[in-house]
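Marked as duplicate of an earlier ticket. Keeping the data here for the record.
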Amino acid sequence: MQARLERIAEALEMEGFSYPVDQLSNASRTTFGICDQIRAKEADVTFVEQVDIFIRAVDEELAERLSPDGLDKVQRHYADSYLDHPPQVDEEAADVLMAMRDMGLKVALICNTGSTPGVTQRVFLDRVGLLKFFDAVTFSDEEQLSKPAKQIFDRTLDRIGSTAEAAIHVGDHHRNDVDGAKRAGLRAIWLRRGDSLPEIEPDAEIERLGQAIGVVRRLLA
């Protein structure tokens, strides 16, 4: 986050606009708050809309005064700083995905993107060698829907040619991944992290991702 804001500050400085990082940080918190309210209603904003919210939170007049090139730089820094400071990938992720493909299953990803757009998430997944395992990837900013919305599960199922009854969803968020999947008619495996409990009981619980392989085999049997 700090690297993102520092790069945006530098880009704005080159455009002739000087804003302290603290002001950009406050604008970022305002942006997250607005986006969280939208996502609480199971919707989402496009990446361009999110950056516009951020810029207007920095300074309402900035949105009208920033040049197209300056806007492009802000958008790139907003998105691409994620690639310089990426999250840690679960060490069992590749083995699990490969096992699913070896079972002859279609594999899809549904991601609530937060502050990083789907286009950047695809680059990251490709860099870490995971993108190749997915038959479909669905990102909330591109769909303007977010988990636990039933429609985002439905659209992903359509992309892999599956019905909800035949699908199994694996995820760690009690509301988005368990309640969302169950309400959409899928079976749900909960990778339990934290103490928050889902409203709907999952079909199985696991403590680490690698355990999903055996559980999927059992549920399919």
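See parent ticket for discussion. The longest helix spans residues 21-39.
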